[in-house]
Amino acid sequence: MKIEVQAFINQIQDQTYLTDEYELPTPDPFVADGILAQLKPAIDKAIEKQALASFSVLTEYAGEPVKVTLETGIVNLPLQYIKKVNQFFELDDQAEVNLYLYVTSPLINRSNMRIDLIGTVASFEESAAANWTKIADLLTKDLEAVVIGSQAPKEEPVEKKAPAKKKAAPKKMATTKKKAPAKKTTAKKTATQKTTTQKTTTKKTTTKKKTTKKAD
Protein backbone atom coordinates (compact mmCIF):
# COMPACT_ATOMS: atom_id res chain seq x y z
CA MET A 1 0.00 0.00 0.00
CA LYS A 2 1.48 3.29 -1.12
CA ILE A 3 0.19 6.80 -0.74
CA GLU A 4 1.24 10.23 -1.96
CA VAL A 5 2.84 12.16 0.90
CA GLN A 6 0.56 15.18 0.43
CA ALA A 7 -2.53 12.92 0.42
CA PHE A 8 -1.30 11.23 3.62
CA ILE A 9 -0.83 14.60 5.33
CA ASN A 10 -4.27 15.76 4.20
CA GLN A 11 -6.02 12.67 5.60
CA ILE A 12 -4.33 13.01 8.96
CA GLN A 13 -4.95 16.75 9.25
CA ASP A 14 -8.58 16.34 8.13
CA GLN A 15 -8.97 13.38 10.55
CA THR A 16 -10.48 11.17 7.86
CA TYR A 17 -8.62 8.06 9.06
CA LEU A 18 -9.90 5.28 11.35
CA THR A 19 -9.20 5.94 15.01
CA ASP A 20 -10.38 5.08 18.52
CA GLU A 21 -9.12 4.83 22.11
CA TYR A 22 -10.03 2.21 24.70
CA GLU A 23 -9.60 2.52 28.45
CA LEU A 24 -8.51 -0.59 30.29
CA PRO A 25 -7.92 -1.20 34.01
CA THR A 26 -4.40 -2.32 34.85
CA PRO A 27 -4.14 -5.89 33.48
CA ASP A 28 -3.40 -8.50 36.13
CA PRO A 29 -1.03 -10.04 35.24
CA PHE A 30 0.49 -7.10 33.38
CA VAL A 31 0.87 -8.84 30.02
CA ALA A 32 0.09 -8.13 26.36
CA ASP A 33 -2.93 -10.43 25.86
CA GLY A 34 -5.65 -8.20 27.31
CA ILE A 35 -4.36 -5.11 25.53
CA LEU A 36 -4.08 -6.77 22.13
CA ALA A 37 -7.57 -8.26 22.51
CA GLN A 38 -8.84 -4.67 22.37
CA LEU A 39 -6.71 -3.63 19.40
CA LYS A 40 -6.72 -6.68 17.11
CA PRO A 41 -10.27 -6.47 15.67
CA ALA A 42 -9.93 -2.77 14.79
CA ILE A 43 -6.49 -3.18 13.20
CA ASP A 44 -7.54 -6.24 11.20
CA LYS A 45 -10.48 -4.25 9.80
CA ALA A 46 -8.24 -1.31 8.85
CA ILE A 47 -5.70 -3.61 7.18
CA GLU A 48 -8.49 -5.31 5.22
CA LYS A 49 -9.68 -1.91 3.95
CA GLN A 50 -6.10 -0.75 3.34
CA ALA A 51 -7.03 2.34 5.34
CA LEU A 52 -4.98 4.64 7.50
CA ALA A 53 -5.64 3.97 11.17
CA SER A 54 -4.61 4.68 14.75
CA PHE A 55 -5.98 2.65 17.69
CA SER A 56 -4.85 2.94 21.31
CA VAL A 57 -5.39 1.34 24.69
CA LEU A 58 -4.99 3.56 27.76
CA THR A 59 -4.10 1.88 31.05
CA GLU A 60 -1.71 2.44 33.94
CA TYR A 61 0.93 0.73 36.00
CA ALA A 62 2.23 1.69 39.45
CA GLY A 63 0.19 4.86 39.26
CA GLU A 64 1.73 5.97 35.95
CA PRO A 65 -0.06 6.10 32.56
CA VAL A 66 0.73 3.54 29.88
CA LYS A 67 -0.52 3.99 26.32
CA VAL A 68 -0.23 1.26 23.67
CA THR A 69 -0.89 2.30 20.08
CA LEU A 70 -0.96 0.47 16.76
CA GLU A 71 -0.81 2.98 13.96
CA THR A 72 -0.24 3.18 10.23
CA GLY A 73 2.18 5.75 8.89
CA ILE A 74 4.89 6.51 6.38
CA VAL A 75 7.57 7.38 8.94
CA ASN A 76 8.28 6.21 12.50
CA LEU A 77 6.63 9.19 14.13
CA PRO A 78 3.22 9.23 15.80
CA LEU A 79 0.53 10.96 13.76
CA GLN A 80 0.47 13.80 16.27
CA TYR A 81 3.76 14.93 14.70
CA ILE A 82 2.26 15.15 11.22
CA LYS A 83 3.80 18.59 10.63
CA LYS A 84 7.27 17.02 10.60
CA VAL A 85 6.53 14.49 7.86
CA ASN A 86 7.52 16.82 5.04
CA GLN A 87 11.04 16.91 6.51
CA PHE A 88 11.54 13.33 5.31
CA PHE A 89 9.81 13.36 1.92
CA GLU A 90 8.92 15.52 -1.02
CA LEU A 91 5.17 16.20 -1.02
CA ASP A 92 4.63 14.48 -4.39
CA ASP A 93 6.58 11.32 -3.38
CA GLN A 94 4.84 7.95 -3.19
CA ALA A 95 5.56 6.42 0.24
CA GLU A 96 5.01 2.92 1.60
CA VAL A 97 2.49 2.71 4.46
CA ASN A 98 3.76 0.72 7.46
CA LEU A 99 2.30 -0.50 10.73
CA TYR A 100 4.02 0.74 13.90
CA LEU A 101 3.74 -0.15 17.58
CA TYR A 102 4.13 2.74 20.04
CA VAL A 103 4.28 2.31 23.82
CA THR A 104 4.24 5.57 25.76
CA SER A 105 4.92 5.82 29.50
CA PRO A 106 7.23 7.74 31.83
CA LEU A 107 8.31 4.30 33.13
CA ILE A 108 9.51 2.79 29.86
CA ASN A 109 12.65 4.86 29.18
CA ARG A 110 14.05 8.35 29.34
CA SER A 111 12.27 9.44 26.17
CA ASN A 112 8.94 8.07 27.52
CA MET A 113 8.34 6.18 24.26
CA ARG A 114 9.30 2.94 22.51
CA ILE A 115 8.75 2.60 18.74
CA ASP A 116 8.75 -0.68 16.83
CA LEU A 117 8.21 -1.29 13.10
CA ILE A 118 5.89 -4.23 12.45
CA GLY A 119 5.98 -4.25 8.64
CA THR A 120 4.17 -2.92 5.59
CA VAL A 121 0.39 -2.75 5.51
CA ALA A 122 0.43 -4.29 2.03
CA SER A 123 2.11 -7.51 3.22
CA PHE A 124 0.48 -7.75 6.65
CA GLU A 125 -2.40 -10.04 5.65
CA GLU A 126 -0.13 -12.47 3.83
CA SER A 127 1.33 -13.56 7.16
CA ALA A 128 -1.13 -12.11 9.64
CA ALA A 129 -0.56 -14.79 12.32
CA ALA A 130 3.21 -14.26 12.29
CA ASN A 131 2.74 -10.50 12.42
CA TRP A 132 0.47 -10.69 15.46
CA THR A 133 2.98 -12.97 17.19
CA LYS A 134 5.65 -10.36 16.47
CA ILE A 135 3.45 -7.62 17.91
CA ALA A 136 2.77 -9.70 21.05
CA ASP A 137 6.49 -10.38 21.58
CA LEU A 138 7.46 -6.74 21.15
CA LEU A 139 4.67 -5.52 23.43
CA THR A 140 5.65 -8.09 26.08
CA LYS A 141 9.18 -6.70 26.14
CA ASP A 142 7.85 -3.16 26.33
CA LEU A 143 5.56 -3.98 29.26
CA GLU A 144 8.46 -5.69 31.03
CA ALA A 145 10.45 -2.48 30.58
CA VAL A 146 7.57 -0.58 32.21
CA VAL A 147 7.63 -2.95 35.22
CA ILE A 148 11.41 -2.59 35.56
CA GLY A 149 11.08 1.16 35.27
CA SER A 150 8.54 1.22 38.11
CA GLN A 151 11.03 -0.57 40.39
CA ALA A 152 13.92 1.76 39.70
CA PRO A 153 14.66 4.33 42.38
CA LYS A 154 13.03 7.57 41.50
CA GLU A 155 15.42 10.33 40.69
CA GLU A 156 14.87 13.36 42.80
CA PRO A 157 14.15 16.38 40.67
CA VAL A 158 17.24 18.49 40.32
CA GLU A 159 16.71 21.93 41.70
CA LYS A 160 17.44 24.46 39.09
CA LYS A 161 19.83 27.03 40.37
CA ALA A 162 18.71 30.53 39.83
CA PRO A 163 20.96 32.21 37.32
CA ALA A 164 23.62 34.34 38.96
CA LYS A 165 22.60 37.89 39.09
CA LYS A 166 24.68 40.10 36.92
CA LYS A 167 26.54 42.70 38.81
CA ALA A 168 24.98 45.98 38.18
CA ALA A 169 27.23 48.40 36.39
CA PRO A 170 28.40 51.16 38.71
CA LYS A 171 25.99 53.95 38.60
CA LYS A 172 27.27 57.09 37.02
CA MET A 173 27.29 59.96 39.42
CA ALA A 174 24.55 62.22 38.42
CA THR A 175 26.10 65.52 37.57
CA THR A 176 23.82 68.25 38.66
CA LYS A 177 24.30 71.37 36.71
CA LYS A 178 25.14 74.21 38.99
CA LYS A 179 22.68 76.94 38.63
CA ALA A 180 24.16 80.33 37.93
CA PRO A 181 23.93 82.48 41.02
CA ALA A 182 20.79 84.44 40.98
CA LYS A 183 21.37 88.06 40.19
CA LYS A 184 20.75 90.21 43.19
CA THR A 185 17.97 92.47 42.38
CA THR A 186 18.58 95.70 44.18
CA ALA A 187 15.24 96.98 44.81
CA LYS A 188 15.46 100.69 44.76
CA LYS A 189 13.79 101.88 47.74
CA THR A 190 11.35 104.47 46.69
CA ALA A 191 11.74 107.23 49.05
CA THR A 192 8.49 108.16 50.42
CA GLN A 193 8.18 111.70 49.54
CA LYS A 194 6.67 113.61 52.26
CA THR A 195 3.96 115.70 50.88
CA THR A 196 4.17 119.00 52.52
CA THR A 197 0.91 120.59 52.78
CA GLN A 198 1.35 124.17 52.08
CA LYS A 199 -0.65 126.27 54.39
CA THR A 200 -2.90 128.44 52.44
CA THR A 201 -2.68 131.92 53.78
CA THR A 202 -5.88 133.62 53.40
CA LYS A 203 -5.36 137.33 53.02
CA LYS A 204 -7.75 139.37 54.99
CA THR A 205 -9.38 141.78 52.76
CA THR A 206 -9.65 145.00 54.55
CA THR A 207 -12.44 147.06 53.36
CA LYS A 208 -11.49 150.65 53.50
CA LYS A 209 -14.30 152.75 54.68
CA LYS A 210 -14.80 155.63 52.41
CA THR A 211 -14.99 158.82 54.36
CA THR A 212 -17.32 161.20 52.96
CA LYS A 213 -16.45 164.75 53.61
CA LYS A 214 -19.29 166.80 54.79
CA ALA A 215 -19.86 169.95 52.87
CA ASP A 216 -19.16 173.08 54.68
Number of strands: 7
Query: What distance lies between the first and last C-alpha atoms, to the nearest angstrom?
Result: 183 Å
- Sequence stretches where pLDDT stays below 50 over 5 or more residues: 185-216
Strand percentage, roughly? Answer: 15-25%
**Topology as a string of helices (H) and strands (E):** EHEHEEEEEHH
Rg, please?
52 Å
Helix content: 25-40%
How would you describe what is shown here?
Helix 2 (32-49) runs antiparallel to helix 4 (128-151). It contains four helices and seven strands. By secondary structure, it is an alpha+beta fold. It has helices spanning 5-14, 32-49, 121-124, 128-151; strands at residues 2-4, 18-23, 53-61, 64-73, 94-96, 98-104, 113-120. The strands form two sheets. It has a five-stranded mixed beta sheet with strand order 2-3-4-6-7. It has a two-stranded antiparallel ribbon with strand order 1-5. The longest helix has 24 residues, at 128-151. Helix 2 (32-49) links the parallel strand 2 (18-23) and strand 3.
Tell me the layout of helices and strands.
Blueprint: E1 2-4, H1 5-14, E2 18-23, H2 32-49, E3 53-61, E4 64-73, E5 94-96, E6 98-104, E7 113-120, H3 121-124, H4 128-151
Parallel strand pairs: 2-3
Antiparallel strand pairs: 1-5, 3-4, 4-6, 6-7
